[in-house]
Amino acid sequence: MTNDQGVPSNVLVIEDDVPMRRFLRAALENEGYRVTEAGKAREGMTMILGHPPDLILLDLGLPDADGMTVLRRVREWSQVPVLVLSARGQEYDKVEALNEGADDYLTKPFGVPELLARVRVALRHSARIKAGAGEGAARFESGDLTVDLGARRVTAKGADVHLTRTEYRLLALFVRNAGKVLTHRYLLQEVWGPGCELQTHYPRMYVAALRRKLEEDPADPKYLLTEQGVGYRFTEGT
Ligand code: CA
Fold this sequence. Notes:
The chain is about 40% helix and about 20% strand. It is built from 8 helices and 12 strands. The strands form 3 sheets. A 5-stranded parallel sheet has the order 2-1-3-4-5, sandwiched between helices. A 4-stranded antiparallel sheet has the order 6-7-8-9, with no helix packed on it. Strand 11 (about 225) and strand 12 (about 230-235) form a beta hairpin. Helix 6 packs across helix 7.
């Protein structure tokens, strides 16, 4: 995979587990990415500052510092996509990392197709933001669903869909972040604003409403997926 200048995207892997690092390097290089590695947080920070990568794969459990510390420091000055690698059972850490600005997460163990899909989505999203299109008139089209944010028009199942203001705001946020997992807290902040952080049932209610209007089978959604204990992910459907 190449970036907008036609050179291979640089992926920095910050992970202390050697077999895991080897697995990531092999999978990514095989796909045409350039890979650099760091086994510790400090080393990783030095590499980020010396040669900013296009994407970071960050393990949360590092020997010299918490991966979260690396994430917070990076986010002080950079919007480089960060995918967090978390162990099973670290649900809280994962959510916190997403709230602190991580783009996505992979729960170990994961397979090559899942890794490559997440990396592709994160790089595409970051390229869109760099091109200044992140907040612009995005258009989403997949199967029977079309969302035209410029024209404020949504069609699904062969007909125009009428959404309430809040439903539309929520859907627009999902479309702008297609492929990315959005936490409950992020959704509450962005759609409902300050003072609503504790109204955790809002996203659930409104996602259910959107599913009824957009999904062929609301009980088995294709576009608006639940990320158990974390939030939701809007996908292109399969
Ligand atoms: Ca580790």
